Amino acid sequence: MTPLEMGQRVLRAVRARAERARLLSDRPVPAPRPAAVFRPWIHGAPRVAAAPYIAAADRIAEGWLDVFALRDLDPGTPPRWNRDPKTGIEAPLVHGSLLDCGDPDLVGDIKYLWEPNRHRHLVTLAQAYALTGNAKYFHVIAEQLDSWFLACPYPLGPNWASASEAAVRLINWSAAWQLIGGMDSSLFQTEREFCGQLQTHWLRSIYQHAEFVRSRHSLHPADGQLTAEAAGLFIAGLTWPHWPQARVWLGAAGELLEREALEQCAPDGVSREQALAGQQLALEALTLCLLAGRANGRRFSSAYEARVEAMLDFLASITDCGGNVPMFGDADEAGILNLTREKVFSPYKSLLATGAILFKRGDFKLKAGSLDEQTRWLLADADARFGALDSERTRLPPRQQFPHGGYYVLGAELETANEIRVLADAGPLGWRGAARGHADALSFTLSVGGRELLVDPGTYAYHAQARWRQYFRGTSAHNTLRVDGLDQSVQAGNFLWLHKARAGCSLWLSSAHKDSFEGWHDGYMRLPDPVKHRRMIELDKKARRVLIEDTLEMEEEHDVEIFFHCSELCAVDPVPGGFVLSRKNVSVRMILPEAADAQSRIHRGSVAPILGWVSRAFDSRQPAPTIVWRARLPGHAVLRTEMAVQALA
């Protein structure tokens, strides 16, 4: 931590103790007053099939939830809001600012505890009400909120420990509020028998949430939490303009959003966190605020809108023709708002579909493939506007270089069924604390014809399961080279780094015949015998051949490993000098480097050592083949790996 970050934590601890002593937390909540009409940014009757929403809402009403890897979870009646549903550990009802949410013995897996408290399932219930008019869904919302207000009094317990979690809850509350009819909903009057003083208690908690978020902004965030906090405060100010303080929320949040849109995202559209989860979170938050602001006459600057479009452009550029997005850095499926019941439509395609309409980009429409339900809820006349986009006439040449983020796309026949797509990474570990970054310098992914062959294995764990967290963040979980069994960057906890490797691109050339990339990193210059690693990747487009050349500048002997992580759907078979990777109608023949006493081995689902895993979702992993080449090299070395792409007969 920097001295400023340390000072911030000390200040927060002092403030928390003062609040616990009731010096600050007993401030009265002013009564809400009639205010200007709020214009909803979620549309209550889009062209979606009602049946999946009704089925999902009925399941919630019956007492069942899915939370990450846990399916058919019974959260209790009423739900145990302060309990981790995975471990059963109940977090203590102490002042939230003093609670160590990184201690699994105290709170369990905090990500599991927080997820149902984001109240995304209440939005599903509100959608079912909007589609059917059946008040039973409102009754469930009322019961769950009443129990939450009782179990989670401000400012006690784990649900008052994070400003970003409170902000996400505000966004979901805003969506549910709109779908049930807002401040003037007849339900608050006609259903008073069932909901009691719901409106009064809900508005009180909304005010407390907004003030909590406003007073606890992440001054020096390690990731995109500040963007989510600003988004929650901005949307609260728009949705509930019933207090003079709402103008303060709007003004402060609007300034933060304008600033963070430019600071946390580079001009080339890459999140400075160098993590897919950060990219999705920031893009979703910025887009929701853009839509909510437009609906209520509050426009953001052209620079803000241009940065959102650049982020979408980057997302489109790294998505292969099969819709696959590499899982670089921390990645999970949490997100902010989930308005869809489509099981196969990814959040990235949804963002691209929304962006296609917002920015009139036919190339985004092409990458999205079709219009999704979430976009229909967010945008009026979405079907007509999406259908009017001409994806051919407005198609732009695919972007291949993102110098600020350090990502480079080597490609042959891009955006066709025959494409070869390599994404090379020469970016930094991450912004500031690099909390969501991985030690993956000079790693790469490979897909052919929209089918992933070499992948980034993902994330799997955050706060709990430290051994797995360390592995998935480490160098051996990426398609790069490791020296002496050490990570390029040195981990110091689940979200901290003791030493951060620097990386960069020294060469990028692209022509009709060949794409060439060369990068470097200094992660092993810290060794007693410093090692400089440079990697060149060339794609011969006509020959459909990828050459990887690793150069190690060193004086003494070192143990060297090169890792190739294959998709869990990929078959791997040995051949002289290497392996053949195959999947459906494509194959890649990989010839590994030649060196004295070099060995290669396939690991699949190994736990000692941990190798051969892919995590497509938080707390979920599948065995997958990982090829490891190993040798002890006496000094300066150049290692060549060749991959020939072929179509199967």
Commentary on this structure:
The chain is α+β, with helices and mostly antiparallel strands and 649 residues long. The protein has 2 domains: 3-387, Chondroitin AC/alginate lyase (Glycosyltransferase, Alpha/alpha barrel); 401-647, Beta-galactosidase, Chain A, domain 5. Helices cover 35% and strands 21% of the residues. The chain contains 19 helices and 25 strands. An 8-stranded antiparallel β-sheet has the order 11-12-13-14-25-18-17-16, with no helix packed on it. Strands 3-4-5-6-7 form a 5-stranded antiparallel β-sheet, covered by helices on one side. It has a 4-stranded antiparallel β-sheet with strand order 8-15-24-19, with no helix packed on it. Strand 9 (490-491) and strand 10 form a beta hairpin. The chain is globular, with a radius of gyration of 25 Å. The model is unreliable at 1-11 and 20-24 (pLDDT under 50).
